[in-house]
Specification:
This protein is of the alpha+beta class. It has one domain: Translation Initiation Factor Eif1, CATH 3.30.780.10. Helices cover 23% and strands 36% of the residues. The chain is built from two helices and eight strands. The strands form two sheets. Strands 6-7-5-4-8 form a five-stranded mixed beta sheet, covered by helices on one side. Strands 1-2-3 form a three-stranded antiparallel beta sheet, with no helix packed on it.
């Protein structure tokens, strides 16, 4: 039974191929997510942006929903980044590290 490993880039493991189909494995510890605060073009309101997610749009939507629920605020997922209302950088960073996104950092 041969196994083949495919890489999307050097730090993100996308899937493992077995003789009877695909098994999808996400390597979250390799994701380098950036958590930052932005106020530009938002009417003076602060939002927290999470950038650097590699993967499917559905997985990004799921991560965005989990972060919104954890912070108890609104937000959205647009153009490959997660937008959370308010300054939630510390909360989000703690949640990401707790949930195996170890390379995440606050900018």
């Amino acid at each position: 039974m041969a196994h083949y490993i495919f890489f999307e880039n050097e730090t993100y493991l996308t899937s493992v191929l077995s003789c009877r189909g695909f098994l999808k494995i996400k390597c979250q510890t390799q994701e380098k997510l950036k958590v930052k605060l932005e106020k530009k073009h938002r009417g003076g309101k602060a939002v927290t942006l999470i950038e650097g997610f590699f993967g499917k749009e559905e997985d990004l939507q799921t991560l965005g929903k989990a972060l919104k629920n954890f912070c108890g605020t609104g937000g959205s997922v647009k153009d490959g980044e997660i937008i959370i209302q308010g300054d939630q950088r510390e909360k989000i960073l703690q949640w990401l590290i707790k949930n195996d996104y170890k390379n995440s950092r606050k900018i």
